[in-house]
């Protein structure tokens, strides 16, 4: 029997129908016996003995047609198998081929179809090749551009929008958004929560500690509400806040739940009492108690607040007592002015103690307190004497004048930093051409003039003698200095001189004064005191 079994199995493997012999030696099989076989399609199956004969070879049903299941391919990768005719088919690879040096699709090829893969560098299109399990650079460009949120590989590293973020803000504060394939994700700031009393905007609506309600407390005139949260801390409500002494006003002033209890000014209906007085503007009258237990109006004239009207309005303190309606600052403190205090005097409010505006004068100050200095002033009297040939003519200066000549003026400019100048013309005359004081010679007298600029600041005095354009002499002296000019005179010669004086400077409204003193001395050996080699005569 052992030998016969081996023969049957060998035949089954060859796909043939095998017969067995019973103990009687007749051809047939034992009912219910099962024999392995292979169908004409090459699928494993089985035969069953029925009525002493074998059935046709049929596929053994182990799965439902169309069913799929996971499996492992011969390449040790994940795969799937499909049921056909009740049996599982071969395991097929699920993975697509990738550039990694492995047979991902289990087709016994490595990195196939990777010789020219499309790629992008920003908006440019190119190709890349898989070599040794890694891609070569994209032919469209090189990784030099920063990555942007545009679903493009701007930096050409094979990735799209990687690491692209931007700051964002929500009602809960600052956060960060991340780009995913050309679109910005949600802001990762904190999420809103229920508002609590902690000084923070928990519900992220832009308000702190809002919507937390109020606290109510107190009776009568003390009834009030307070915020339930103040500055991040729980609020408090004082039930006695606003409490006052009880008065007859139909109100619960002392906040104890009772009205007008023990109030001294309450009365009984119909009761009468004297009111006011005949002092000052008041007139005595009577009060009558109303049905509600309060006093009605006084039939006389009651005191009022004191007014500045020359009357005793409060009927106690006297006329205009206590500076009524006064006490406020008045006037201005601009320029040279100073504010005063409004004071009730004789029934009128007057500004006492103020330094009031004055007419503007030329002194470098804001006298009229309009915040402008030396404005609106007429220019000085000689403002048409702006040139040497147009100087103001002063009286002649005599050789024998006993007193110095004096004249004054003002430099006036309307623009900061501008300069002004005044010109004067003086005619110096000698006493006589024929009566010189020192004898009869061609050089028998020395004439001199002393010019001095006084009471001036940062100004200059200049002098020209003879002619404006071609003077015989010209010179200048600063303020509080002097200029001495001399010339020889002779008998029978007209020694008169035309003298032109200029005062110039940049200070606005600056007054000045000029003194001009004449001298005459006799020469010594033909020389005047200003000549080189001059020696004063003895005696």
CATH architecture heading of the domain at 388-521 = Sandwich
CATH class of the domain at 388-521: Mainly Beta
CATH-assigned fold name of the domain at 388-521: Jelly Rolls
Helix-strand category:
mainly beta
Q: Can you count the helices?
A: 1
Shape: flat
The number of strands is 36
Gyration radius, in Å: 63 Å
Q: Please state roughly what percent of the residues sit in beta strands, choosing from under 5%, 5-15%, 15-25%, 25-35%, 35-45% or over 45%.
A: 25-35%
Oligomeric status of the shown chains? single chain
Helix content: under 10%
Catalogue the unreliable spans.
1-27
Distance between the termini: 188 Å
Q: Your description of this structure?
A:
- With 539 residues, the chain is mainly beta.
- Among the domains are: 80-113, no CATH class; 388-521, Jelly Rolls (Sandwich), CATH 2.60.120.
- Helices cover 2% and strands 32% of the residues.
- The protein has one helix at residues 2-13; strands at 20-21, 27-28, 34-38, 44-50, 53-54, 58-59, 68-72, 78-84, 87-88, 92-93, 117-121, 124-128, 130-131, 134-135, 165-170, 173-180, 183-184, 214-217, 224-227, 229-230, 233-234, 272-275, 285-288, 329-330, 340-345, 348-352, 392-393, 397-398, 405-411, 420-429, 445-454, 459-465, 473-478, 482-489, 497-505, 510-521.
- The strands form twelve sheets. Strands 27, 28, 30, 32, 33 and 35 form a six-stranded mixed beta sheet that branches. Strands 3, 4, 5 and 6 form a four-stranded antiparallel beta sheet that branches.
- A hairpin with a 2-residue loop joins strand 8 and strand 9.
- The chain is flat.
- The model is unreliable at 1-27 (pLDDT under 50).
């Amino acid at each position: 029997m052992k030998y016969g079994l081996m023969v049957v199995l060998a035949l089954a493997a060859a796909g043939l129908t095998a017969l067995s012999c019973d103990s009687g030696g007749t051809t047939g099989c034992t009912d219910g016996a099962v024999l392995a076989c292979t169908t004409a399609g090459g699928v494993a199956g089985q035969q069953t003995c029925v009525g002493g004969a074998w059935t046709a070879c049929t596929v053994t049903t182990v799965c439902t047609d169309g069913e799929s299941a996971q499996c492992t391919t011969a390449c040790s990768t994940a795969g799937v198998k499909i049921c056909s005719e009740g049996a599982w088919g071969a395991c097929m690879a699920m993975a697509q081929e990738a550039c990694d040096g492995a047979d991902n699709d289990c087709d016994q090829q490595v990195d196939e179809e990777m010789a020219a893969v499309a790629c992008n560098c920003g908006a440019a299109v190119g190709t890349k090749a898989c070599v040794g399990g890694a891609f070569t650079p994209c032919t469209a460009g090189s990784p030099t551009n920063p990555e942007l949120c545009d679903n493009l590989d701007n930096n050409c590293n094979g990735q799209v929008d990687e690491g692209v973020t931007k700051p964002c803000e929500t009602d809960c504060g600052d956060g960060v958004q991340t780009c995913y394939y050309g679109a910005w994700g949600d802001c990762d700031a904190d999420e809103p929560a229920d508002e609590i009393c902690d000084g923070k905007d928990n519900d992220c609506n832009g308000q702190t500690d809002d919507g937390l309600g109020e606290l109510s407390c107190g009776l009568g005139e003390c009834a009030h509400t307070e915020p339930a949260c103040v500055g991040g801390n729980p609020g408090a409500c004082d039930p006695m806040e606003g409490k006052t002494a009880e008065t007859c006003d139909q109100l619960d002033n002392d906040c104890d739940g009772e009205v007008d209890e023990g109030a001294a000014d309450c009365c009984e209906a119909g009761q009468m009492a004297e009111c006011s007085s005949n002092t000052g503007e008041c007139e005595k009258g009577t009060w009558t108690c109303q049905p509600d237990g309060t006093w009605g109006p006084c039939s006389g004239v009651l005191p009022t607040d004191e007014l500045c009207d020359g009357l005793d309005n409060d009927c106690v303190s006297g006329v205009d007592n206590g500076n009524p309606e006064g006490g406020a600052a008045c006037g201005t403190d601009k320029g040279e002015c100073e504010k005063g205090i409004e004071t009730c005097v004789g029934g009128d409010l007057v500004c006492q103690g103020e330094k009031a505006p004055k007419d503007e004068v030329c002194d470098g100050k804001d006298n009229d307190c309009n915040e402008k200095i030396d404005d609106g002033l007429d220019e000085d009297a000689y403002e048409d004497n702006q040139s040497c040939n147009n100087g103001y003519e002063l009286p002649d200066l005599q050789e024998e004048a006993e007193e110095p000549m004096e004249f004054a003026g003002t430099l006036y400019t309307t623009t900061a930093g501008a300069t002004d100048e005044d010109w004067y013309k003086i005619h110096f005359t000698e006493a006589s051409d024929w009566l010189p004081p020192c004898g009869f010679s061609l050089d028998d007298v020395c004439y001199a003039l002393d010019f001095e600029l006084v009471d001036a600041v940062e100004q200059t005095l200049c002098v020209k003698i003879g002619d404006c354009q071609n003077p015989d002499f010209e010179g200048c002296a600063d303020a509080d200095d002097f200029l001495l000019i001399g010339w020889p005179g002779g008998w029978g010669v007209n020694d008169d001189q035309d003298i032109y004086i200029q005062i110039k400077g940049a200070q606005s409204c600056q007054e000045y004064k000029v003194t001009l003193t004449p001298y005459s001395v006799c020469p010594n050996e033909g020389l005047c005191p200003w000549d080189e080699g001059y020696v004063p005569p003895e005696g």
